[in-house]
Write a structure and sequence with these properties.
Layout: E1 2-3, H1 5-18, H2 26-40, E2 43-46, E3 56-64, H3 66-71, H4 78-90, E4 94-99, H5 106-117, E5 121-125, H6 138-141, E6 149-152, E7 158-161, H7 166-180, E8 183-187, E9 191-192, H8 193-199, E10 201-202, H9 204-212, E11 221-232, E12 240-248, E13 256-261, E14 265-270, E15 273-277, E16 281-286, E17 303-309, H10 318-324
Parallel strand pairs: 2-5, 3-4, 4-5
Antiparallel strand pairs: 1-2, 3-8, 3-9, 5-10, 6-7, 6-8, 11-12, 11-17, 12-13, 13-14, 14-15, 16-17
Helix pairs in contact: 1-2, 1-9, 2-5
């Protein structure tokens, strides 16, 4: 399978859905990937198992504020600079690129950089969706080392972060991205193709393509946004929160669903009963355009489909729920009896660090540019 110019728009729409309202807007990096494919050719997508088990894989993505990323798309030499430093650190050539975060803008980033480097793209990623923190990924759950991680910008500056755990990677990356001006190219959680086949979220690129073609699950509700409330929270590191009230239309007339958001949509409730709770993917898809709407762009009167789906199975394990379940977003207890996939923890857990880089809406660093 190849990602070519004809498939790219569908892929980006699917990445937007998997962003669950976060991860940065996929339409920002769609033209970047389009230009890379035009200049360098289509990107072959391969199963990790098709490569030698010891082949070196480079996870890639942008970290930082989505607003900054939209203004500073970056240069075409950033992936080459990352690759050169990555190979020097590991003493081996990179055999393939993998998206660190398929949800949001980083899916297209991985396509663009694979094209620029002339490398295949793994049909896998580190999250299966978008999350706000760098350590909120399945490689962290598997116990893989976060470093050496490399951050670079379009001006030739490079930073290496090593000998850290996932939480400290977040701290150091946050400080580095501030110095970079709010956005940086990144590779972290280095791994082999064998480790990717065992631990990464399989089929991520294929899933995004399928979702982008409109072949995903049926909406739970179709209606309009009847109110949007943005407020500060006293939990979850003081993140800004958003409450979106959806009023059903047509066959769903008379239904009211409340969708709660932090950086991403984290819960959908009807009459106080959870329809879906993080780590479930929750997306509001614009009825007119077919694009998933980022949290910060939700507005009164917007006609949307409420779409939910389960995340990768690793996120519903006890460790996965501690890292990225309801309590990690200040929602302890909301999903105690299960979300769309029956997964929620209800147990308190530390809020860890974040994945945005500097001046995002919640002031955190974020892997894909999640606000």
């Amino acid at each position: 399978m190849n990602v070519d110019a004809g498939a790219l728009a569908d892929f980006a729409r699917g990445c937007a859905v998997l962003g669950s309202g976060g991860g940065g807007p996929a339409d920002v990096t769609l033209p970047v990937a389009g230009q890379a494919i035009e200049e360098c050719g289509p990107v072959p997508v391969v199963d990790p198992a098709a490569l030698p088990a010891d082949a070196l894989v480079m996870p890639v993505g942008l970290v930082g504020s989505p607003a900054v990323a939209a203004e500073r798309i970056g240069g075409s030499d950033e992936p080459a600079r990352l690759r050169a430093r990555f190979e020097a650190l590991h003493g081996a050539p990179v055999a393939a690129v993998m998206s660190s975060e398929i949800g949001g803008l980083n899916g297209c980033v991985a396509v663009a950089w694979a094209a620029r480097l002339g490398l295949p793209l793994l049909d896998a990623d580190s999250m299966g969706r978008a999350f706000p923190r760098m350590d909120q990924n399945v490689l962290e759950l598997a116990g893989l080392r976060p470093g050496p991680a490399v951050l670079a910008d379009e001006h030739g500056h490079t930073v290496v972060i090593d000998e850290v755990d996932g939480a400290h990677l977040e701290q150091f990356a946050r400080a580095a991205v501030v110095a970079f001006g709010g956005r940086a190219a990144s590779t972290d959680y280095p791994l082999t193709a064998g480790q990717a086949a065992r631990y990464a979220v399989a089929g991520s690129v294929t899933r995004a393509l399928v979702l982008g073609r409109g072949e995903g699950p049926a909406p739970l509700l179709t209606g309009k946004v009847s109110s949007v409330r943005r407020y500060a929270t006293e939990t979850a590191d003081g993140d800004d929160a958003t409450g979106v009230l959806l009023e059903g239309a047509g066959p769903d007339a008379g239904r009211l669903v409340l969708v709660e958001a932090r950086s991403e949509f984290v819960a959908a409730l009807e009459d106080g009963t959870p329809l879906a709770v993080v780590p479930d993917v929750i997306a509001l898809v614009d009825v007119r355009t077919g694009w998933a709407v980022p949290v910060e762009e939700v507005r009164y009167g917007l006609r949307v489909h409420l779409v939910t789906m389960p995340s990768a199975p690793a996120w519903y394990t006890p460790n996965g729920l501690r890292l990225a379940g309801p309590s990690a977003f200040g929602l302890a207890g909301i999903g105690a009896d299960g979300g769309a996939d029956g997964g929620a923890d209800g147990s308190p857990g530390p809020r860890g660090r974040v994945r945005d880089g500097s001046s995002s809406t919640d002031g955190r660093p974020s892997r894909g540019g999640t606000p």
